[in-house]
Amino acid sequence: MTLASDHDTAPQVGDLAPKNSLPSGETLIRGLIWAVVLFLCLTPFLLVFAISFGHKVEGASWVWGFSLDNYKRVFVGAEWPDNVTFLYLQKLWYSLYYAVIAAILAVITAFPFTYFMTGLSRRAQAAWLVFILSSLSLSEVFIVMGWDVLLSNRSGLPMLFKVSGATQWLKDVGWFDTLRDWGLANPRNVKFKTSVFATVLTMAYLVWPYAVILLYPPLSRLDRSTVEAAQTMGAGPWTVMRTVILPSVRLPLVGSMLLLFVFLLGVYVAVTVFAEPAKQTMAVSVYEAVRGNTLNAPFGSAQAMILLVTAAVFLGLGQWLSRRNA
Amino acid sequence: MKGLVLDNIHKSFGSVRAVEKTRLDFAEGELTALLGPSGCGKTTLLRMIAGLEEPSGGALILGGRDITALPAHKRRFGMVFQSFALFPHLTVLENVVYSLMISGTNKAEALEKGEKLLDLVQLAGYGDRRITALSGGQRQRVAIARALAQEPDVFLLDEPMSALDAKLREDMQVELRLLQQRLGITTIVVTHDQREAMTMADKIVVMSQGRVEQVGAPHDIYHKPANAFVADFIGRANFFDAVVEKGNLRLGDTLIETDVPAQFINGSPVRVAIRPEGPALDTPDMKGTRIPAKITFLRDLGPVRDIHLDTAIGPMIVEYATGETDRAFAVGSATDVTLPPGALHIFPRENTAPSEAA
Fold this sequence. Notes:
The complex is a heterodimer of chains A (326) and B (358). With 326 residues, chain A is mostly helical.
């Protein structure tokens, strides 16, 4: 009885320990969500990373392994050191080239539109936003098909140039030769397919609604009285734009360009349709390696990793520049 | 002379008439307050003066020159906005010298002038700070210095004190007035705060529903209100509806002896206003109509004391300055209130012109 009594009254180890020694339901759910998110984000990345070190088996698929040959092939070609080729670096260059120009073009054209849109009535702004958001439902394939028709030599803009006499006028004033030098004309008429111009234009068109949506919040938050204040201090429209509006939204502008740039690095359909075969991008090369005739997943994965690292480097660089100039 | 004249200027937004035809003269070096309730058109008028709003008609004349069609950036009118509208991406000094830098002034010269202006608004040493690191009062001073940097012909301020707390607002009103007097610059201030207008202005323009109700010196506006709206909006007043009867006023059974202006003929319905400091309690020797009253409420405000009365002509508030009377008042006690004829302001009843009232 005494023992039992002591046992009843004396503090026990279990009593001193925190009551919630087991994780609560909320903690479990939170941990589960984190685990799922991490799994979904990291698994594909880790798989691609691991596969990039494997190697292709001729006449078959590929096997796991640890070899840097795929990376070496991207940078200096498969036959290095006997023979050096920069074919894949050239593809990477075109990836960057198209993505940078298209991102800048999209932001530069979306910026004035969005700025004037934010000056409209609430009702008009809502109508424009709904229209722009609905255009996002169009797939890349659909958009490229539209531009393909629009720029095709037989039925699109070139035909319009010819029928309207614009081609002849360009020849008369001597600008036709300049267009030929730029690869935008054949001996008979203007041509937009295949060209860097058509590729970049279509890519910019693809991301233009995103540019508007990214720029809308900072521009709608812009204090319009600062614009008016600048006007009362002698600033004309261009000076206001240069000294007040652009510096006020510099970070969102850079951020939008970076986001669109990263998105555009992976564009596939527009490049395959509009870019010349010699000017295809690394995204196309990745797809061809993984799904094309070669079925070389390790090499495709190595290219994908390099594309990913390039995007990360550019994002980091952009952020560093923004911070430095902030 | 760089006086500003608004010649029948008016503004409509669609079918809404924001500012009726207005003619105003702003003398050089004078501070004018545009005073009125929200939505009365005072800010629209100021924005038309600044060139930020295009008038629907009329003209703006500055020093004899028509500037109606001149865009805002060519007017050289410094303006302080309600939100101050400082540029967040620039430092304090960069904000101040903005107008100088974009006009191509030598950088060293501009910076030197900027430092002087910061000194003028008591912000010397703040030049390198970010705008976000300043308090409301400091931001207002930066906005003032920035607007003054281009040495404007006219200085415009749109509700410049509304973002400040009550104590700071009082201090800044005096500071701004002293600064304006020192610089002798033609200044127009928009405000809905009659105390602010009375403190700062040489001249007050009282506006209501897009119309100018009265223009005058603060003292005249308060003591000689042109209509019931001005009497009500500026300061406090007790209002009664009455009918003119043989040169006096009839309020129910009570006849108030006064000198009704000749424009009101017998039987005219009128609105009578009397400021709370006008009537007097228990003063049998004072000239005026004495009305029995009962004290219903006492309100001690520190410098003044309000005595709320229930009288035969309706409820009334009488104000005494602290120490003005030795008499002890008590709620519920009976008294009599004297209405001196000179303290009564008589206006035509709302929507009833004097001639129509006959």
